[in-house]
Write a structure and sequence with these properties.
about 110 residues, mainly beta, Thrombin, subunit H, 6 strands, about 0% helix
Length: about 110
């Protein structure tokens, strides 16, 4: 049974996110408090990242993510996305990170 206080609102999708999320499935490294661990990026957007680490991260903790980007730059230079962020929530199914700053860096050849 469907229930809506406003009948017109029943047909409007309830998406509160500011930025569209894109599925990623990429591997990443998480650095936090001198510890590094592997993670899987579940989805990514301009404002945040959802990742799976196999465990929980403390809410509020500042972290750095390093993601090997799938696209190449110009003459075939590999790119790496470095994200600085803060843990918004963390559950056994995933951890949400708010992006504070990000930077694309080239990966040295050889």
């Amino acid at each position: 049974m469907s229930f809506a206080l406003n009948p017109k609102a029943a047909n409007v999708p309830c998406e509160r996110r500011k930025y569209q999320r894109y599925p990623a499935g990429a591997d990443a490294l998480v650095f936090s408090s001198g510890i590094s661990k592997k993670a899987e990026i579940l989805d990514i957007a301009t404002g945040g990242v959802l990742l799976y680490t196999g465990g929980r991260l403390p809410v509020g903790r500042r972290i750095q993510l390093v993601i090997d980007w799938p696209a190449l730059l110009n003459d075939g230079f590999a790119l790496r996305l470095v994200v600085e962020g803060r843990v918004l929530r963390s559950h056994r199914t995933g951890t949400a990170i708010k992006i504070v700053r990000y930077d694309f860096r080239t990966v040295p050849r050889g």
